[in-house]
């Protein structure tokens, strides 16, 4: 980790066992990474350790999205103890790092949880720090499930500004985009969270969203109807970013409006500020069956979320920063969705903007969405 | 004296307007920004890796030059002359095994189109324009463009159709027949791939509109 | 010697005071504690399950917690209506009431903060909001403004009464030059907290129901009606149960404030209704939903049609001197007004802001049992805090609590 952190980091000198987690070359999971035998100070009895773990990471384990698929079933502790534990989380973590008793694996887990709990805002991290946190997250996943994920932290590429166009006359309402999005982005299956909504509108009534149906189930395209998709529009002047009290959401250089799930405090002010219904909140612990987890992840994109944080469409940052199209664009069978680089004069999205009659939703609000609609 | 106060006021006004200027990057709107920062892309991101597995050919139509998937290799019974060794008129009524029996033409009405509109009975290895010129199977879009000119314009620009993979250059666009069955080009009605039961419950409870 | 010794003695004495009292007092405190414990249990369930334990959803993402928060900021701000005449306009009448008012402000602010924390999805990472350690999105986010002004106001409202009581505790006269500037500051600050809280909503272009220029002033007017109304009720209770002397004159003066504020509030309400219903636009749908229901969705009708009539009724009754000077009528009116404004600012303001949603979809909101439990317990917390503060303050003001210099005795 770099020395000049931009945030206050709690290091009480108790973290001397810190190792470059996740990157230990030795494949052995059970702590053989540490070649030198550690001093095992038997500071406290096992019960104390247990309590400390409970206080520090037990609560987090429950809230934490990272273990949502790992089936780590903690025994149900009494409600009051949990309450106290959550309040004393910091204190608990201190005692955890003090007590160096049980296996290296759980110690490493505790170490990772500690560092994750008190890490800074991703937006302000240096590249090494970003690398550090994704390595911890990957290692943490491995420790909990014995399975590997690949997580990246690509920054915005230069000379790229992402934009999107939606062809209203082409969309047939098949909803392939919706299910591709859910699978790609590891959205909560319990609450059936979806970033994309396809509104079925009646011909001749214009864009009457209030009369539209966004959860139809009949053969499509239905007679006398047309379809219009909405999702996060990645505004150039995003009201959600302005209102966030902790800068947990921001606009990246390539125009993506992203969220640091670990920095979000869950106040939902951004949700109230969004005129486009673009944001979703994890009202309970998000769950994705292990075999359905998309393991190609990005820190700002489809990595596992936790309970009580916001999330939203990121134009599939994990894909688009590698040159791919977002999952919805790729899945669309009708070619109604066009994605590309707004700054490249030769890109197809630019041709659409310059040659088709494009419009955006609620332009009068001054949000400058980077999501245009057009018709043939 | 009077002038000086005036200058002060002007400076103050400028200062205020500077501070109150909300545009952080100095552009008034996203279109100004696109215009202002637009430059040919020479970045590191490329779709080349994603296109590795696809056989592509380069075409130039007007000002546009881009890649489209190669077609002939995808047609199962190509080359056609392996069976169509004689013109169709001579093969008709023979006892040879029937092929393509499942193809029904569901494209325009029968007054406007029949098999010969696109296929050349004399030379089955090529397609056939309305004026009887040969078109390579790889360039079948030219055939479609004869009637569907506005779609063709949109396709060339990129408003119609899909990319093969990735937004990053080089541009590789699917051609007409990658999405449309030329014998029955319109999309069929079908059921949406999914239904949100949670929203369904909400609605049943009378909570949703 | 020193201040610390006096302080220690004050803490011990006040602990002594608040743990002793009549059976009624113990019953009251015991009841509050029970309610708080039940609330803590509810909150623990909410922590465990997430905010899905509440009635909120993606469509109505703020509910009872934020409603109460908004209302209580108003109650806190209203303490200023007592401070101003006493310290700034030198109207001595109010001096007795001021300490109570400021105690009420402190309790209300603590409740505000508790409601905000209860509404958070990740209370364990709230430190992200602490400037210096976390990232504080100031001045862009109105929520950060709110954090600053609320905490500042809390500080002012704790320090001024504390200074006065601390001096009185030592049998000294509090220096005016010390507390009057603070009091004057708090007058402006109080207007600030409520205006900033209004801006929290007013600044959202996504929600046309809130995005109107009248919201801030209306917040102030309704706050200055509901807050002093609560103070009147509290004073009435204190008058009945303690030896603390509060003259009728004081109560009547506060009643005057309540009346004027309630009248202004009604004028603004009429103006708002006129704007929404004379030439209704697409943006009037929230108001339609609130007052008449939309597409058969009518969950808020009982609330708003309870609130508006009793608000109008109470205001009309208070307008007549004859009724207002009758204390019994006054108390009833204050109670009615308080309830009416609570409904108006909660169910009548926060919830319809989300209905219909950005794309016209309507999902109604009803608080869950858990949510109601937590809400009631936070109110109990406020009552608890206020009772402690008031009991100590009254003890000092009545001269029951006095610093005894043991050194002096020994000599």
TrEMBL record, chain A:
One Pfam family this sequence matches: Fer4_11
InterPro entries: 4Fe4S_Fe-S-bd, 4Fe4S_Fe_S_CS, ET_IronSulfur_Cluster-Binding
Top-level taxon in the UniProt lineage: Bacteria
PROSITE patterns: 4FE4S_FER_1 (PS00198), 4FE4S_FER_2 (PS51379)
GO MF annotations, alphabetized: 4 iron, 4 sulfur cluster binding; metal ion binding
Gene3D superfamilies (alphabetical): 3.30.70.20
Protein name as annotated: Prokaryotic molybdopterin-containing oxidoreductase family, iron-sulfur binding subunit
Organism: Cellulophaga baltica
UniProtKB/TrEMBL annotation, chain B:
InterPro entries in UniProt: Cyt_c-552/4, Multihaem_cyt_sf, Multiheme_Cytochr_ET
Key words, A-Z: Signal
Domain of life, source organism: Bacteria
Residue intervals of the Cytochrome c-552/4 domain: 144-172
Pfam (any one): Cytochrome_C554
Record bears the keyword Repeat: no
Protein name: Cytochrome c3
Lineage of origin: Bacteria, Pseudomonadati, Bacteroidota, Flavobacteriia, Flavobacteriales
TrEMBL record, chain C:
Pfam families: NrfD
Family: Belongs to the NrfD family.
Keyword Cell membrane: yes
The organism's place on the tree of life at top rank: Bacteria
Cellular component GO terms held in the UniProt record: plasma membrane
Keyword Membrane in annotation: yes
Compartment(s) of residence: Cell membrane
Entry keyword set: Cell membrane, Membrane, Transmembrane, Transmembrane helix
Protein name per the record: Prokaryotic molybdopterin-containing oxidoreductase family, membrane subunit
Topology relative to the membrane: Multi-pass membrane protein
Main location: membrane
Transmembrane spans: 27-46, 66-85, 97-118, 147-166, 178-201, 221-242, 254-274, 300-320, 329-352, 372-394
Segment forming the signal sequence: none
């Amino acid at each position: 980790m770099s020395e000049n952190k931009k945030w206050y980091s709690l290091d009480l000198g108790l973290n001397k066992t810190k190792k470059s987690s996740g990157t230990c070359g030795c494949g052995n999971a059970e702590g053989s990474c540490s070649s030198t035998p550690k001093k095992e100070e038997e500071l406290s009895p096992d019960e104390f350790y247990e309590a400390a773990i409970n206080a520090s990471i037990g609560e987090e384990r429950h809230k934490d999205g990272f273990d949502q698929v790992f089936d780590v079933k903690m025994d149900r502790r009494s409600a009051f103890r949990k309450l106290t534990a959550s309040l004393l989380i910091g204190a608990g973590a201190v005692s955890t790092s003090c007590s160096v008793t049980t296996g290296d694996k759980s110690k490493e887990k505790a170490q990772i949880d500690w560092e994750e709990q008190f890490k800074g805002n991703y937006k302000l991290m240096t590249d090494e720090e970003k690398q550090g946190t994704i390595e911890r997250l990957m290692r943490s996943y491995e420790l909990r499930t014995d399975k590997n994920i690949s997580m990246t932290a690509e920054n915005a590429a230069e000379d790229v500004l992402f934009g999107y166009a939606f062809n209203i006359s082409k969309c047939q309402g098949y909803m392939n985009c919706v299910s591709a999005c859910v699978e790609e982005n590891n959205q909560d299956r319990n609450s059936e969270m979806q970033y994309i909504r396809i509104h079925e509108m009646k011909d001749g009534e214009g864009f009457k969203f209030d009369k539209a149906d966004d959860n139809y189930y009949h053969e499509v395209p239905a007679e006398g109807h047309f379809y219009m998709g909405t999702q996060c529009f990645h505004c150039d002047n995003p009201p959600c970013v302005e209102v966030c009290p902790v800068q947990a959401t921001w606009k990246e250089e390539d125009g993506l409006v992203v969220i640091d799930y670990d920095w979000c405090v869950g106040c939902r002010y951004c949700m109230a500020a969004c005129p486009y219904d673009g944001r979703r909140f994890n009202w309970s612990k998000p769950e994705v069956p292990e075999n359905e987890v998309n393991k190609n992840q990005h820190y700002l994109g489809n990595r596992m979320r936790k309970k009580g944080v916001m999330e939203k469409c990121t134009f599939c940052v994990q894909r688009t920063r590698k040159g791919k199209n977002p999952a919805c664009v790729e899945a669309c069978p009708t070619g109604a969705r066009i994605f590309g680089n707004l700054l490249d004069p030769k890109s197809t999205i630019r041709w659409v903007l310059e040659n088709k009659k494009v419009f955006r939703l609620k332009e009068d609000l001054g949000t400058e969405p980077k999501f245009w609609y057009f018709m043939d | 004296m009077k002038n000086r106060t005036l200058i002060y006021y002007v400076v103050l006004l400028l200062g205020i307007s500077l501070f109150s200027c909300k545009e952080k990057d100095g552009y008034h709107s996203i279109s100004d920004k696109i215009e202002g920062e637009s430059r040919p892309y020479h970045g590191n991101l490329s779709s080349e890796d994603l296109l590795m597995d696809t056989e592509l050919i380069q075409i130039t139509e007007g000002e546009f030059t881009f890649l489209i998937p190669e077609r002939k290799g995808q047609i199962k019974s190509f080359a056609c002359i392996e069976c169509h060794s004689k013109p169709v008129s001579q093969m008709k009524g023979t006892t040879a095994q029937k092929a393509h029996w499942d193809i029904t033409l569901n494209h325009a009405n029968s007054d406007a189109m029949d098999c010969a509109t696109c296929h050349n009975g004399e030379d089955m290895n090529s397609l056939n324009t309305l004026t009887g010129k040969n078109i390579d199977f790889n360039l079948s879009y030219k055939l479609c463009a004869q009637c569907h000119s506005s779609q063709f314009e949109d396709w060339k620009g990129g408003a119609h159709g899909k990319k093969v993979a990735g937004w990053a250059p080089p541009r590789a666009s699917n051609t007409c027949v990658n999405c449309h069955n030329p014998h029955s080009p319109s999309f069929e009605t079908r059921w949406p791939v999914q239904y949100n039961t949670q929203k369904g419950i909400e609605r049943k409870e009378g909570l949703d509109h | 010697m020193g201040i610390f010794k006096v302080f220690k003695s004050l803490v011990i004495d006040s602990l002594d005071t608040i743990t002793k009292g009549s059976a009624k007092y113990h019953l009251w405190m015991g009841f509050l504690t029970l309610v708080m414990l039940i609330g803590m249990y509810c909150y623990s369930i909410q922590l465990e399950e997430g905010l899905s334990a509440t009635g909120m959803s993606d469509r109505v993402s703020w509910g009872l917690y934020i409603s109460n928060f908004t209302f209580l900021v108003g109650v806190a701000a209203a303490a200023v209506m007592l401070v101003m005449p006493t310290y700034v306009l030198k109207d001595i009448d109010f001096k007795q009431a001021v300490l109570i008012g400021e105690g009420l402000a402190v309790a209300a602010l603590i409740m505000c903060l508790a409601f905000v924390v209860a509404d958070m999805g990740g209370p364990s990472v709230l430190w992200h909001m602490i400037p210096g350690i976390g990232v504080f999105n100031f001045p862009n986010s109105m929520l950060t403004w709110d954090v600053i002004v609320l905490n500042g106001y809390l500080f002012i409202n704790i320090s001024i009464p504390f200074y006065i009581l601390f001096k009185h505790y030592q049998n000294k006269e509090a220096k005016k030059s010390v507390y009057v500037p603070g009091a004057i500051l708090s007058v402006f600050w109080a207007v600030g907290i409520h205006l900033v809280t209004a801006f929290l909503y007013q600044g959202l272009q996504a929600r046309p129901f809130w995005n109107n220029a009248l919201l801030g002033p209306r917040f102030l007017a309704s706050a200055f009606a509901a807050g002093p109304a609560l103070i009147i009720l509290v004073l009435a209770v204190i008058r009945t149960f303690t030896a603390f002397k509060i003259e009728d004159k004081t109560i009547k003066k506060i009643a005057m404030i309540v009346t004027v504020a309630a009248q202004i509030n009604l004028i603004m309400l009429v103006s708002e209704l006129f704007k929404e219903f004379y030439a209704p636009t697409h943006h009037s749908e929230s108001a339609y939903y609130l007052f008449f229901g939309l597409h058969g969705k009518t969950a808020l009708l009982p609330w708003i049609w309870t609130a508006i009539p009793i608000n109008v009724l109470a205001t009309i009754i208070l307008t007549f001197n004859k009724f207002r000077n009758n204390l019994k009528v006054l108390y009833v009116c204050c109670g009615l007004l308080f309830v009416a404004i609570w409904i108006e600012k909660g169910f009548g303001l926060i919830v319809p802001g989300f209905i219909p949603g950005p794309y016209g979809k309507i999902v109604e909101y009803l608080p869950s049992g858990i949510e109601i439990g937590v809400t009631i317990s936070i109110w109990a917390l406020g009552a608890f805090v206020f009772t402690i503060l008031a009991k100590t303050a009254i003890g000092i003001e009545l001269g029951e609590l006095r610093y005894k210099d043991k050194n002096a005795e020994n000599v």
